[in-house]
């Protein structure tokens, strides 16, 4: 019971924070660009608190699932059709009193592009921030390893070959290695699991031959020596946080490419149910792992939203580019039809993914 409750809390927190930060990006850039923002809402459903300040209504709503930004003129047809029902609830579709900004369609195209892109970018920045904090306050291992040997195991092939602490590995089988990633890749590429290591020792270069190692089924190398960790300086922490964010971004993009190319079946996608299941499993491991899961999810949200697909921010950017090329806006009815088709496709994909999530669970 407690685990289920904890999962629900973390799921609401994850999705709530990610969507709030996404919408905050739209809101802040719209305000900075001088675009009229009629409402900035935290949550969905009926409003439990609202106040008007500087021409914008700020709302907190009952359901803690995301939020939204409503800009003047962004969806004119939708506003016209729903203005009366919103007005009966005391909500603003048209600009509240004190509004001074320009309607969204009247803003310069480059300003609108910044506003639209800001949501996804804010998610990526959130991922970078959380990654950096996890590195800064997490275990020293999060800093990653250098090429400098810290310890050689007694009786290992590396010790027999003459490897010593403080040796800096600069080549594997004659191939230069600039960092730990290249070092591991070069060793893993050895077919007979025996390598020659070229090291720098006391300003001299030596080559140590026939160092044997093992590789387990999960890909872990057992090499008979350990490497020093990178020092936890402020610059190194930020760089490591950046590397982690880029890594997760690469994982997301690789997944998208695999899906589009047919290498991955759509049935392998995770919908909301699958994501909540992963949150539940990760919450039972450690808070640190939960933090890294959050990084992956927010980076995924940011990149996915920037894809050039209808209804997504990336699709809206494409329409703005076309508007700039043809020097006139895409007809609203056409834009709404395109976005509606995109929404229907996304909903269908979500339902499909959720169906397979349930099959995997039960």
UniProtKB/TrEMBL annotation:
<keyword id="KW-0812">Transmembrane</keyword>
<feature type="transmembrane region" description="Helical">
    <location>
        <begin position="290"/>
        <end position="307"/>
    </location>
</feature>
<keyword id="KW-0482">Metalloprotease</keyword>
<keyword id="KW-1133">Transmembrane helix</keyword>
<dbReference type="InterPro" id="IPR041489">
    <property type="entry name" value="PDZ_6"/>
</dbReference>
<dbReference type="InterPro" id="IPR001478">
    <property type="entry name" value="PDZ"/>
</dbReference>
<keyword id="KW-0862">Zinc</keyword>
<dbReference type="GO" id="GO:0006508">
    <property type="term" value="P:proteolysis"/>
</dbReference>
<feature type="transmembrane region" description="Helical">
    <location>
        <begin position="6"/>
        <end position="25"/>
    </location>
</feature>
<dbReference type="GO" id="GO:0016020">
    <property type="term" value="C:membrane"/>
</dbReference>
<feature type="domain" description="PDZ">
    <location>
        <begin position="124"/>
        <end position="203"/>
    </location>
</feature>
<protein>
    <submittedName>
        <fullName>Site-2 protease family protein</fullName>
    </submittedName>
</protein>
<dbReference type="Pfam" id="PF17820">
    <property type="entry name" value="PDZ_6"/>
</dbReference>
<comment type="similarity">
    <text>Belongs to the peptidase M50B family.</text>
</comment>
<feature type="transmembrane region" description="Helical">
    <location>
        <begin position="114"/>
        <end position="137"/>
    </location>
</feature>
<dbReference type="GO" id="GO:0004222">
    <property type="term" value="F:metalloendopeptidase activity"/>
</dbReference>
<keyword id="KW-0645">Protease</keyword>
<keyword id="KW-0378">Hydrolase</keyword>
<keyword id="KW-0472">Membrane</keyword>
<feature type="transmembrane region" description="Helical">
    <location>
        <begin position="336"/>
        <end position="355"/>
    </location>
</feature>
<dbReference type="InterPro" id="IPR004387">
    <property type="entry name" value="Pept_M50_Zn"/>
</dbReference>
<dbReference type="InterPro" id="IPR008915">
    <property type="entry name" value="Peptidase_M50"/>
</dbReference>
<dbReference type="Pfam" id="PF02163">
    <property type="entry name" value="Peptidase_M50"/>
</dbReference>
<dbReference type="InterPro" id="IPR036034">
    <property type="entry name" value="PDZ_sf"/>
</dbReference>
């Amino acid at each position: 019971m407690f685990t289920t409750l904890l999962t629900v809390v973390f799921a609401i927190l994850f999705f709530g924070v990610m969507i709030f930060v996404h919408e905050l990006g739209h809101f802040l850039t719209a305000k900075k660009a001088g675009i009229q923002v009629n409402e900035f809402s935290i949550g969905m459903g009926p409003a439990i608190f609202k106040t008007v300040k500087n021409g914008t209504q700020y709302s907190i709503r009952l359901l803690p699932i995301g939020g939204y930004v409503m800009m003047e003129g962004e969806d004119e047809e939708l506003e016209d059709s729903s203005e009366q029902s919103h007005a009966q609830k005391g909500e603003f579709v048209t600009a509240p009193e004190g509004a001074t900004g320009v309607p969204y369609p009247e803003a310069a195209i480059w300003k609108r592009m910044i506003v639209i892109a800001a949501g996804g970018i804010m998610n990526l920045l959130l991922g970078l921030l959380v990654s950096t904090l996890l590195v800064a306050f997490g275990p020293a291992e999060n800093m990653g390893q250098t090429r400098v040997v810290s310890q050689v195991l007694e009786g290992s092939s590396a010790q027999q070959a003459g490897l010593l602490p403080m040796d800096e590995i600069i080549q594997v089988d004659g191939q230069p290695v600039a960092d730990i990633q290249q070092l591991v890749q070069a060793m893993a590429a050895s077919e007979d699991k025996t390598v020659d290591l070229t090291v720098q020792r006391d300003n001299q270069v030596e080559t140590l031959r026939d160092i044997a190692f093992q590789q387990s089924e999960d890909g872990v190398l057992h090499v008979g020596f350990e490497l020093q960790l990178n020092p936890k300086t402020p610059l190194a922490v930020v760089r490591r946080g950046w590397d982690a964010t880029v890594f997760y971004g690469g994982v997301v993009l690789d997944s998208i490419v695999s899906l589009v190319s047919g290498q991955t079946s759509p049935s392998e996608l995770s919908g909301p149910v699958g994501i909540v299941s992963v949150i539940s499993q990760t919450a039972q491991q450690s808070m640190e792992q939960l933090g890294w899961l959050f990084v992956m999810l927010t980076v995924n949200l940011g990149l996915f939203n920037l894809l050039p697909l209808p209804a997504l921010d990336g699709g809206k950017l494409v329409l703005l580019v076309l508007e700039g090329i043809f020097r006139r806006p895409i007809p609203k009815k056409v834009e709404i039809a395109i976005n509606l088709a995109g929404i229907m496709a996304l909903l269908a994909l979500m339902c499909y993914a959720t169906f397979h999530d349930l099959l995997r669970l039960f």
